[in-house]
Specification:
Helix content: 40-55%
Order of helices and strands: HEHHEHHEHEEEHEHEEHEHEEHHH
Strand order of the largest sheet: 1-2-3-6-7-10-11-12
Radius of gyration: 19 Å
CATH architecture: Alpha-Beta Barrel
Number of helices: 13
């Protein structure tokens, strides 16, 4: 799957991923009205509104991008109807030829971690048959329970030729409370990066490993260090746009081949119609068109920073 991701990035010339992180406040009134007329102001109504919102954005942007990243918490909060919307979104994006990165941030030990890995990347056995559960192509993994929590994901990745992105240096302001702590003279995030590189050596695609890393755009100098620590790992870069990251901050996340990183924007794209930059041009009824324009502007910004225009 890492080879497919690289190929999709080359085809689109867009090393970006759209974060499908829907919140009810992002969904235009005409969408919620349609969903509530059918299902009422219920969890089922919320799930339907999320699905309609996601579908419109995917339809408007799928020819421009290689991948999407649905954040599972935004769906879980609506219970079973929310999870149904999550699964419908995953399946629809794959029908459209997009790579799906499930942002699940799971990490446990033993059979629990195995169940997470099987449920999201692999097949579960039911009697004499086996089935894919959510069936994403990649998922995000929290490494702070150690190799016990990551190895089950690696096993499934090898079986299914899928991948993971391990949290190394996250984009949130308080990440340094733990991730920046010095251990034997090195910050913890650098030690985690070294472990990611080692795990990746066991799961290689053609040029890059199945084991990637999450490194926030809000910490470009740390990204520069980690790029050298993990030369064969793709870096998933959150924090672009709404969290303050700009194209110029991203240069050091990429390798000399112009690959090696994929940049996420969530609300900067899916709620673009609410942003000052777009709201005068796009009415709420045209929210998906605003999202498409936001993708085009993001592609242009990153290409300008990388010198690939």
């Amino acid at each position: 799957m890492i080879n497919k991701l690289v190929e999709k990035i080359k085809q689109t010339n867009a090393p970006i991923v759209v974060g499908l992180d829907p919140m009810m406040g992002f969904i235009p009134e005409h969408i919620t009205k349609m969903a509530f007329e059918e299902h009422g102001e219920t969890l089922e109504g919320a799930g339907e509104a999320i699905w309609l919102f996601n579908k419109a954005i995917v339809d408007s942007t799928c020819d421009l991008i290689p991948a999407v990243k649905p954040q599972i918490a935004m769906y879980e909060q609506f219970g079973i109807p929310g999870m149904t919307a999550f699964k419908r979104t995953v399946d629809y994006c794959k029908e459209k030829g997009l790579i799906v990165i499930g942002d699940i941030k799971r990490g446990d030990i033993g059979s629990t971690s195995s169940a997470y890995a099987v449920g999201h990347l692999g097949k579960v056995t039911v009697g004499s048959k086996s089935y894919y559960g959510f069936d994403e192509d990649f998922v995000t993994v929290n490494p702070y329970l150690g190799s016990d929590g990551v190895n089950p994901f690696l096993e499934v990745c090898r079986e299914e030729k899928k991948g993971i992105f391990v949290l190394v240096k996250t984009s949130n302001p308080s990440s340094g409370e733990f991730q920046d702590r010095l251990i034997d003279g090195k910050p913890l995030y650098e030690l985690v990066g070294e472990k990611v590189a080692a795990w990746g050596e066991e799961c290689m695609g053609t040029d890059y490993s199945y084991v990637g890393a999450v490194v926030g755009a809000t910490y470009p100098e740390m990204g520069k260090v980690l790029r050298k620590v993990m030369p064969k790992s793709f870096i998933l870069v959150p924090g672009y746009g709404a969290q303050g990251g700009k194209g110029k901050d991203l240069v050091h996340f990429f390798n000399e081949d112009g690959l090696g990183a994929i940049v996420n924007s969530s609300r900067g794209i899916i709620a673009a119609y609410k942003n000052d930059q777009y709201k005068e041009r796009f009415a709420p009824e045209n929210f998906a068109d605003a999202s498409r324009q936001a993708v085009l502007d993001m592609i242009d910004d990153i290409a300008g920073a990388l010198g690939t225009k």
